[in-house]
Specification:
Layout: H1 2-17, E1 32-37, E2 53-59, E3 65-66, E4 71-73, E5 89-90, E6 94-100, E7 120-126, E8 132-139, E9 146-150, E10 156-160
Amino acid sequence: MKSFKIVLLLFLVIVFTNCNNDDPMEETPDVVINEILPKNSQNGSDQDGDFDDWIELYNPAYVDQDISGYFLTDSKKNPSKWKFPTGTTIKANSYLIVWADEDSTHVSGLHTNYKLSADGENIVFLSPTQEVINLVEYPATVLEQSYARKPNGTGDFQWAVPTFNKSND
């Protein structure tokens, strides 16, 4: 009976030691705001051919991520200003363009109910419970300059030549 208890104790120690949920290798990285083009006239057009302002999200994970019910806003005071519709998914290691054109009447594409300011402002990406996932504050811009992460997906933001729906590197 004593040897059974020792074996059982060893088994439990091994099981609980290997059940560590804090392993960073198993965590899925968050979707991030990757690039912003607040004054667009020629870099990427929506389904109607309009060159609207846009926000590019990037999914650095090796799995698709559903962002249905998440929020994207240009107002810290109004975190639920624009909500991603049901069924919005970003494929693994891919990009998603959100048009900031104040035209949410479109049937296709993702169009916010606000525009970006060329004078600078902030863009906030929030979870369905309105926890801030990513906040980007950008300064005033000139025409056709994007505010982009370099290196792609992880770096600091800087003004750059727009790289619509692709890597910033």
